[in-house]
# Entry
Amino acid sequence: MELKNKKILTMLIICIMFFNAAGCSKSGENQDNNINDVEETKERQQTIFKMESLCSGDAKLIGSNTVVTGVGGKLTFIQNGMIVKQYDEYSVYWLDVISDEGLIVYSNWDKQVCILRYDKEYNILSNDVCFEIQEDLGIDPAVCKVENEYYITVTHITGKINNGDINGENGKYTISMYKSLNLTEWEKVSDVITLDNNLEDVDLNYFNKKLYITYEKETADKCNSSINLLISSDGGVTFQENKTLVKENADNEPASIFYMNGDYYLFYSSDIENKGESYEKAAMYMQCYNDDFSVKDEPVRLRCRYGDGILLYDVIWENDDLYCLFAGNYVTQNNLVLERLNVAGR
# Structure
């Protein structure tokens, strides 16, 4: 998704101090908060909403209290935990947004990649099919805007979809890039990467005149996975760098990445402290990197009211607050939860 908020360096330092005060732990370790820390942290946390057993799919923030998602495959807008608009005619399973333009790119089991525009009341202004998927499926579309040109990526799958058997055969996953000036005529730029691995949770950003693609690479669903980064300096024609941001040490699921004052901040969920439990025992983390993507600090755990059992979808950084959207206990309950972490004065 496109970078939505830029913060000053002081805000970053304050935020990190806050999270460490909350009793954060290094990756692979468990640390117990004392009672004072727990109580103090709770004063800085707010559950904006928790929609129990909503059974939504992919979800994105389009405001600090507003979400767009697919519920039973139906395009759904949610505000403060209430469904404000739902459309049966738009089949949405994977999506990304440019919220300040009222733009959604989505794909579905009908093997379509579409661009949809909506107004401030979440009425649909237009819905155009960009192209039909020729492979078995196209998932995880991601979008960003570079000056007056739009870029999207789509992950094409041929063969086995979302292999869940560590000894089973994987499908062939290809992340492909496209561009357009008018959102209706799309030109293929390149096939970015092809692997016999599950390649999922793709995010597309533009920082420092380069395109950045982050994605999860796993051998089997809910098993150990890495979070990887691809960088292009020629508009997506070639990607010269492939960096591992989080090594294959747990089930790691990337959500958002920010570039601020020379550093990169990756937000993701992981079962690193409860290995093998995947979504049911995962927590949220933030990892800071230097400009060359060398690790700057140890991962910081973002403690929230919900506790463990988090599949992180999206993060917005707004003034003194982090807004974290996630599925709670995705497999057994599939709650949709939005929490605010306030960092004022920290």
In short: DSSP finds two helices and 24 strands in the chain. Residues 9-21 form the longest helix (13 residues).
